[in-house]
Design goal:
A 6-stranded parallel beta sheet has the order 5-2-1-6-7-8, covered by helices on one side. The chain has a 6-stranded mixed beta sheet with strand order 10-9-11-14-13-12. The chain has a two-stranded antiparallel sheet with strand order 3-4. Helix 2 (79-88) links the parallel strand 6 (72-75) and strand 7. It is 30% helix and 23% strand. With 328 residues, it is α/β, with parallel strands linked by helices.
């Protein structure tokens, strides 16, 4: 690009769970842009969404060519449609949020707190950036804060319905309503989401991708055992992490708590206070409680997965705008 102005920005998937968060964060963080255009698939088009207190129309993106006039495009859409746009290379820098469920590829995968800003600045020729799964972001952030570069760590992620987007949210609400009315009927290949926690092949595949993403994002990560389960909550997710207790000067685990407390993006919960997924909804921070045992350290992390995904994507755009003369 050879422009010297604020970027023209497109959000593809503006009516989705993450797309809504992106629009909200663009306004809340004061991201400087010259134009903001909102797109959706045909099913989500011709709606309006609130953008900085203004009702904005969402247009249908009929083809990737509809993005050619923009400088940055966020792809907050399912992987098949995002892949079509990435393959077409319509012109703007593409920030692909659909990469969250895949192992890293040759597309740069970056995240705040785990990727130095100067590393992104060096990728001046990159036209596509991928964002990791929010769980990989949370797990990598905690391991980095504690300085865990070797050994073994076990993690179990519990994903709320919002991790699957608006369709998953709608299905969970509808099923819960039908269950309470004793009229739920499921197809043979349909999974009960209301009042149920489960792990299928999809969750196992996501767990494998998360472990690979952490290894790629966090240089020298420990051997990871990751499991993923879907849980019947609408918004927010949780993560448990168990690791051998890091060596500290006092032997009481308090040094580990302090390391987490001073880490960017982490908020330590008050000791003894109950901490639920709902406590993190709407927050940009990862909320963590710590339990120390003689030989191990257990973390209970809750976070707003959609907001964290949107925050990571916007951070890429902010970093590009600051570091590239073409986007300032």
């Amino acid at each position: 690009m050879s422009i010297s102005r604020e970027p023209r920005v497109a959000v593809v998937g503006a009516t989705g769970a993450v797309g809504n968060q992106l629009i909200e964060l663009i306004a809340a963080r004061g991201f400087q842009l010259s134009e903001l255009k909102l797109f959706a698939t045909e099913a989500g088009a011709m709606q309006t969404v609130d953008a900085a207190g203004e009702e904005r129309l969402v247009d249908a993106l009929e083809s990737p060519a509809g993005l050619r006039d923009f400088d940055i495009a966020f792809l907050a859409i399912p992987a098949p449609r995002a892949a079509e746009i990435v393959a077409a290379r319509p012109g703007p820098i593409l920030i692909d949020l659909s990469a969250a469920n895949r192992p890293p590829s040759d597309v740069p995968m970056v995240a705040p707190g785990l990727t130095p800003r100067e590393a992104i600045a060096k990728l001046r020729n990159a036209t596509v950036f991928a964002t990791p799964h929010p769980v990989a972001h949370v797990l990598g952030t905690c391991l980095k804060a504690l300085g865990i570069h070797a050994g073994f760590a076990a993690a179990t992620a519990m994903l709320g319905a919002s991790a699957g987007g608006m369709d998953m949210l709608t299905a969970t609400v509808d099923q819960t309503t039908d269950l309470l009315s004793a009229r739920l009927e499921l197809d043979d290949d349909e999974v009960q989401r209301g009042f149920n926690a489960f792990m299928r092949e999809h969750e196992r595949s996501v767990a494998t991708a998360i472990a690979a993403q952490v290894a790629a994002l966090f240089d020298g990560s420990p051997v990871l055992s990751v499991q993923v389960a879907a849980i019947p909550v609408l918004h927010g997710s949780a993560l448990t992490v168990d690791i051998p207790r890091p060596r500290d000067s006092r032997g009481d685990g308090k040094d580990a708590v302090e390391l987490l407390r001073v880490a960017p993006g982490i908020l330590i919960a008050e000791e003894g206070e109950p901490l639920g997924v709902i406590d993190a909804v709407g927050q940009e921070a990862i909320v963590v409680s710590v339990e120390t045992r003689p030989d191990s350290l257990s973390l209970w992390c809750v976070f707003d997965n959609t907001r964290l995904a949107a925050l990571g994507a916007l951070w890429i755009a902010e970093t590009l705008a600051l570091s590239s003369p073409a986007l300032t």
